[in-house]
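Aim 2 progress update. The chain analyzed this quarter is reproduced below.
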Amino acid sequence: MSNRNSTQERIDLRRGESPTATIVTLGPITLVYSYSTVVAFAVAGEGWTASENVWSKTTGKHLNQEVPRGVERIPHAEFSDKLDAILTRVSVSR
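Predicted structure tokens:
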């Protein structure tokens, strides 16, 4: 499912390799969801940021499947702060 909004930014929603993983692209930001939780994100031109797995084996599988190899997983509190800052920067709320 792809749409264009009034600012002509790309919006895309797709399932990951697993049916409980979802990838959402909002303009320059790509969010990786495991169930309903953002576990990684990428910003065009800035690369990927991923949380360490503090949830389950399935979330670990989602991280392994959807995030490029070699991306460092950072402590969840640090990840959450970075995610909030990025979403604020582009005026999107969780």
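Residues 2-89 form one domain. Helices lie at 57-66, 76-89. These observations will guide the mutagenesis experiments scheduled for the next reporting period.
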